[in-house]
Write a structure and sequence with these properties.
CATH architecture of the largest domain: Roll
CATH topology of the largest domain: Thiol Ester Dehydrase, Chain A
Strand order of the largest sheet: 1-2-4-5-6-3
Order of helices and strands: HHHHEEHEEEE
Radius of gyration: 20 Å
Number of domains: 2
Distance between the termini: 54 Å
Number of strands: 6
Length: 195
Amino acid sequence: MARYSKADRRKILGEALLKHPFFTDEELAERFKVSVSTIRLDRGELGIPELRERTRVVAQEAYSTLKSLDDQELIGELLELVIGERARSELMIDESMVLAKARVARGHYLFAQANSLAIALVDAPMALTGSVELKFIRPVQLGEIVVAEGKVLKRKQSKYWVRVSVKVDAEEVLRGHWVLFALGELKDVRGTELD
């Protein structure tokens, strides 16, 4: 990227963070060929908070759009959600999630994160997983942070096809393709709506 005047850099920086709020100060410094302290000064002048605060704000907005499941049913912390399009969540692998001897994450935690993210993408009051093709690529270690990214590939009436990729840093550790079904309100056998 070419060198910019201070005013141009700040304008472009503000636009970049509006589109991609998860850029770190280090990534921005490298992108604009300036120091990290210059990026911090620019952000301060523009009234743009640090990454942690931007992440918190985006997560709050994402949780407010959840439709097909309750926020307690989502595994991991929701970072982004555009229902019917894309979503991201993050999960820190802690002591309770690992196998005692191997010290690697139990597979059902990784699946639960990916599955709940796929369900969150469905534009309906409820959704069910119809089928999943899943591939575990490498074990995830204690202390690693896994980021799941989901994308709706296709939608036909109440049927959704979703791809989810789970990564540690830039390395993919799990990927899968989901077929999900959007449901209206559940009713009991007498036709009465269930809460």
